[in-house]
Amino acid sequence: MQTPFFSMVFKAITDLKIKNLISFIICIFVIVSCKSEDDKIETPPVPTRSFSMGFTPWPYAASISAVDDIYSFIGSSADLIALHIDGGVPWPESNIADNFDNYGSDVKNEINSISGRLSSLSHHEVYLAVSPFNGLRNDKALYWNTSTGESLPSPWDTYDIDNSLVISSYSNFIDELIKKINPKYVNFAIEINEFYHNVAADRLKLQTFYMSVYGNLKAKYPNVIFMTSFAMSSPGSIKMQETANLYTHLQNYQDMTGISVYPYAFYSHNDKGDPANLPSNWLSQIISIAPGSNYFIAESGFIGESLSIPAFSLNVTTDQDKQNNFLITLLEEANAINAQGLVWFSAYDFDDLWASSLGDNLSLIWRDTGLKDGSQVPRKSLGSWESWLTRSRQ
User: Fold this and answer.
1) How confident is the model over 190-245, as pLDDT tens digits?
2) Is 255 exposed, middle or buried (0-12, 13-18, 19+ CB in 10 A)?
3) Of the chain's two ends, which shows fewer C-beta atoms within 10 Å, N or C?
4) What is the model's pLDDT at position 322?
5) Domain 53-393: which topology?
6) Distance between CA 262 and CA 300 in Å, rounded?
7) Where do the domains of the chain lie?
8) CA-CA distance, 101 to 107, in Å (whole number)?
């Protein structure tokens, strides 16, 4: 039996325990809340990318197996495929609308092959680039018939870029390609600023051309994103100043600005094989050249081994580490300008193709730009590429 004294003591102890327990619970709650807030502050943001990532199906050798390999590689290591048509236009045949069945055999075989292979890349975005210009970007494109790069037939060899037949034929050609390939993006004038620079006397004719072609295509395909592309060179150069002027006339006749950039070959800074020497605005200069535009890295690359082409006075000392550094820099800079796509032109070095079928100085500039070398061995840059590919699109 408890006495009043012990009852009072027991009650006091009980009250004290309850107060201490409440204080303890409050303290734990505060600590957990503070820790949760700290965790929220310290958790780094998940890295993202603004652009889709892809390659052209340029093969490393002149064989079906090489073509199979590159399409398989694009399927697993990209979310975009870039189709680059720069070998001519079927001018007489495409002057008639809906006339694909009468195109030359090489044209039909190539386009039908591409169309068939795209069925295995149904989740990839498709970027289509076509050139109305020849390889030197100083005249309209050559003839594509039974092979690429054929001489222009008469009277097409006499027509200027603004000729109404040139405009209608080229518009019809791209129309056929869109129907066959169903691209999201179409570059209808690869490196248009090169023609603008090289053929200054035809700048007004060029303006007529791109205004008319864009008008024809956009009216029929309002949901396709049409662009032209600029070949980039050193910031502040005459060519970049001219390109800025071109953009003031061109900006209303494209939906996006494409960028072609190979600094190791076409910039003028010292020691071009080391990306640490790039000008600070080597890529971001596009913002002042084409202000207010959306951007797309239409083609880029960097050699993974040293290059010497005496005919072009081009000597570049580099290695795969520096190639990897350039790729990382390109990815970061493309993200900074909110680029919508990024194309690394050649996934593989194409030593075998160059030795067996090309052998020219011009293609040698790009021969060793692969993320895999001439023996199909991955370079360090492939790891960086695949790491970025895992990022989600923002």
Assistant:
1) 999 999 999 999 999 999 999 999 999 999 999 999 999 999 999 999 999 999 99
2) middle
3) N
4) 98
5) TIM Barrel (3.20.20)
6) 6
7) 1-43, 53-393
8) 10
